[in-house]
């Protein structure tokens, strides 16, 4: 699709007539390639988070079995690396080159163009999705960028200049550490204490300690606990991170969240992204608490039905039925369908995903293989 | 002063003509580039669909912002430029950070900044940055010896130094009025925006209560419980309010009641809406926080009455959470009747049939 075609793209009229039609995989592919080439200007306020938007697009492509052309693939990888800051510039990845500069002088820390922990997490996943060999990844820089964002209470902030910190960034720090196989930038004891501090009276987890529990933050907390638990057992320092009583309380809260699709909080409406967050949280809890792998909690048919009712006639999945799609809800909706694929006909050919890291299984294997090869002594 | 909100392009403005705008250069293969609008006011509303009403930053302002940052200019016109961009893209953390630096370095009026935040927090209710900035302002106003306000050290360095500076020093006694006016602002915002479940707003209110806890008086606490009560009256299903009540009682430790009285309070609310999971979950949390199990005589009796009353009428099913309480309490006691209850729940609540089946197996094995 050309620039002018995209500029004149106006979904309003078509929408009203064709809303009820479920989107086919082809329509979803069109939605994806259109967005990868040029995001509509509605995404302007996300320019600093563009690697994350690109991740949602490319991951969705992997789920439905699409790939980018060889030429684009190389170009995208180069672009992602141009967002990387070297170790001497503070390390990690920026979300885009929106501050206009690719490189900084040796030892210059760009205060107004810092890397962002969330972008570093999605950059690594994107490189895996694009089958990069990771030889250009500045591992020391990545570790440095986690350390610089660590707070004494075990939480993390997105940039060193930003003092806001919460469980979402704890998740990003744990995910990056898992992807590169190195937890040395995390102080496990304080981070565990922070996660436990986010636990609420109903068994969910909140964004910061003592706030209201929510589906996305519960996913972040349980996936982080799962990753930390795996790290500890690799070090032969196995610990029980949740009591049996807590496990049951959280399972109950997760089961309660299904209304047709899933709601993020008690007494709220369903929203496609929670189909992913709640399912992901459940998977992590299963692994953490050694629950039977065949334990099911949810009604997959109803969830699948809800997600498909949020699909737009021109492709893409929205937050709610009758809404416009966006790349985040599209990707998370597809991920959730993939997790429910045994019961959802439309999703049977979808790739399997690893819900803890939120990426398809084959890309994750590729990342692990490359990182392990790089770490082998020459 | 400066025409902040001029429709004229920054590149053409007289007051910025000494700066050369720096365009975004992204190399040959940009990934998912964004179709920047030339100027937000003149966009076709159909184009961006449902998001059309939201203003977006135009290329022109960002080009000038890059030039300002490149020149490291901290000035009133740069402050105006950041406001202009923030109004179009409230999530741009670099722009917010630059704005904070300007205010601190130039020693500008924080009260005026807070006033501006009144407007921006209403408009960009769901922006993390706007609430974070508001916190910085309140922290500065509430302390005279704030590290943020230090004129000796360059502000960028002070704020950026390390995450340890994330919370300001304790507030001065004299800032009680500030705390009260912030609480009033947030309360009004819930009504003004018709969004009393907004996560950011609640997190901010709880920060205010925590930060100013030591200087708040009993009458302020009393007012907070009145506020909670009015929100529960408005919408008994609002989980955020229940969560906030728990926060005040147990996290801030504002216990103004006994456990028994609080149980009675919740039961009276459950009487109004017997299937409301928010109040049932609160009740479970309440007992747990007091190291009590589910086998509380008063609650068991209440749940049994509810289940019986509803089962007796033909068209009404017993409320799931009441029967669930009986089932979970029986399981806690290893009473075999739990299995029967779970199988009943499986019939009544088919969307959770796998969950209830699993619970019935646990009960059998107990």
Largest sheet of chain A: 2 strands, antiparallel
**CATH architecture classification name of chain A:** Alpha/alpha barrel
Q: Uncertain spans of chain A, ≥5 residues at pLDDT below 50?
A: 1-22
Structural class of chain A: mainly alpha
Q: Approximately how much helix is present in the residues of chain B?
A: 55-70%
Provide a short characterization of the protein structure.
The complex is a heterodimer of chains A (378) and B (366). Chain A is mainly α.
Structure, explained:
The complex is a heterodimer of chains A (about 375) and B (about 375). Chain A has about 375 residues and is mainly α. Helix content of chain A is about 50%, strand content about 0%. Chain A is built from 15 helices and two strands. Chain A has helices at about 5, 10-20, 25-35, 50-65, 70-80, 115-130, 140-145, 165-180, 190-195, 215-235, 245-255, 270-290, 300-310, 325-340, 360-375, and strands at about 355, 360. In chain A, helix 4 (about 50-65) runs parallel beside helix 6 and helix 7 (about 140-145) packs antiparallel against helix 8. Chain B has about 375 residues and is mainly α. Chain B has a domain at about 305-365. In chain B, helix 1 (about 60-70) runs antiparallel to helix 2 (about 75-90) and helix 9 (about 220-235) runs antiparallel to helix 10. The longest helix of chain B has 17 residues, at about 175-190. The N and C termini of chain B lie far apart (about 75 Å). The model of chain B is unreliable at about 40-55 and about 145-165 (pLDDT under 50). Classes of the chains: A mainly alpha (about 375), B mainly alpha (about 375). At the A-B interface, helix 1, helix 3, helix 4, helix 5 and helix 11 of A face helix 1, helix 3, helix 6, helix 8 and helix 10 of B.
